[in-house]
Design brief:
Elements lengths: L9 E2 L24 E8 L2 E2 L3 E4 L10 H5 L2 E3 L2 E5 L5 E4 L1 H14 L7 H14 L11 E10 L12 E10 L8 E4 L17 H16 L4 E5 L6 E5 L3 E6 L2 E4 L10 H12 L4 E3 L2 E2 H10 L2 E8 L3 E5 L1 E4 L2 E4 L7 H13 L10 E3 L2
Parallel strand pairs: 1-4, 10-11, 10-19, 14-15
Antiparallel strand pairs: 2-3, 2-4, 2-9, 5-8, 6-7, 6-8, 7-21, 8-9, 11-12, 12-16, 13-14, 13-17, 17-18, 19-20
The structure holds pyridoxal-5'-phosphate.
């Protein structure tokens, strides 16, 4: 996981920076991008030298395969700045591995690790002023790969573009998040691409999520496609349930993303003597626990929000509110994780990566 100084990156700097025109106090997530981006083309059977250039539009033929067959995968990761101006990332090797797992499933050639870390470090150093200090400030990093080859034949492309774009982010209070347990629609099926960060997994959720929004929910917790009786994950978050003082989360499989925040939280729970059960989560068990008053919390985990508490859920027309706790596990884990991310706590697991 090291950058390699012998890799030649073709760097073209932006003539001026946009940074002075940005209101860093009022950032809407994922709307503003930094001065530079990384791009790397795959052609003639190999990845060419990475380039860093001013952020801006790219041109492609309208017949490029990504537009027709959705051959596209992506990642989401963050960089943080500590009080000494050092830049840290959180488990970026896991994101790197995962984009290649996703790529393989979508018949996209895997990207080399030394290109990834060399180009990412160079990009972050060039745009370092966009990473603001202070708990909650971060830079959201979006690596992605698209099939650029022109031609509408339904077959994998032979030309691809790997890119990294970066967007400054603030920690938000997301407001009260209420979720709907899915009754009919499915996000992923056995043998499908649910475990991959394939673009189409996300586009396919928009319509059912809009329907849920009309009923007053912000997100859906997807259930298994066969029976809709087991809770799986949310659109961009893995999900944990707390019954009494035990946490329960579903095992990952070919329908569920192997979330990096999820597995970090499981490790932190274990070292803090909080019991975690990794097993299937029946909808009925959660309904019963809500009725008996033993369901204490539901929260989601993911790079964008770290830990996102859920205030209520709906199922088959019934709405359930969750208690407001002063000692929630969600707050406990969010604080623990963020302190590691911002270099404010010991990093026992070697999760932090220093950008050099
Ligand atoms: C479907 C899905 N589940 C879970 C997650 C959370 O994963 P991570 O913690 O690695 O960000 C994400 C976000 O990446 C996601 O898109």
């Amino acid at each position: 996981m090291k950058n390699d100084p012998t890799i030649d990156i073709d760097i073209k700097r932006a003539p001026t920076s946009k940074i002075d025109s940005i209101d860093f106090e009022n950032l809407k997530f994922g709307h503003i991008f930094t001065d530079h981006m990384m791009t790397c083309d795959y052609k003639d059977g190999s990845w060419q030298a990475p380039k860093i250039m001013p952020y801006g539009p790219i041109s492609m033929e309208p017949s490029a395969k990504v537009f027709h067959y959705g051959q596209a995968v992506f990642e989401g990761m963050k960089a943080f700045k500590d009080d000494q101006d050092q830049i840290w990332m959180f488990r970026p090797k896991d994101n790197f591995n995962r984009i290649n797992i996703s790529a393989k499933r979508m018949a996209i050639p895997e990207f080399p690790e030394d290109y990834f870390f060399t180009a990412l470090d160079a990009l972050l150093k060039m745009d370092k002023d966009w990473i603001k200090k202070g708990f909650g400030n971060s830079l959201y990093i979006r690596p992605f790969v698209i099939a650029t080859e022109p031609g509408v034949s339904a077959s994998p492309g032979t030309n691809y573009k790997f890119m990294i774009i970066c967007s400054p982010a603030k920690s938000y209070y997301n407001g009260e998040v209420r979720v709907k347990f899915s009754e009919d629609y499915s996000r992923a099926a056995d043998g499908g691409v649910g475990f991959a960060k394939a673009a189409g997994n996300y586009g396919a959720q928009f319509y059912p999520t809009n329907l849920a929004k009309e009923e007053g929910y912000q997100q859906i917790i997807w259930t298994d496609a066969n029976t809709h009786s087991f809770l799986e994950e949310a659109g961009t978050m893995n999900i944990f349930f707390r019954i009494n003082d035990t946490l329960i989360t579903t095992p990952t499989n070919d329908r569920i993303l192997d979330g990096i925040t999820r597995k970090s939280l499981i490790a932190l729970a274990e070292e803090n003597n909080i019991n975690v059960e990794i097993r299937k989560v029946p909808v009925q068990e959660i309904l019963d626990a809500a009725k008996e008053g033993t369901l204490k919390e539901i929260f989601g985990t993911g790079t964008a929000a770290t830990v996102n508490p859920i205030s209520g859920f709906g199922y088959k027309g019934d709405k359930h509110e969750l208690p407001k706790l002063t000692d929630s596990y969600a707050t406990f884990f969010k604080d623990k994780l963020m302190k590691i991310q911002y270099n404010l706590a010991e990093d026992k697991h070697g999760w932090r990566y220093l950008v050099k």
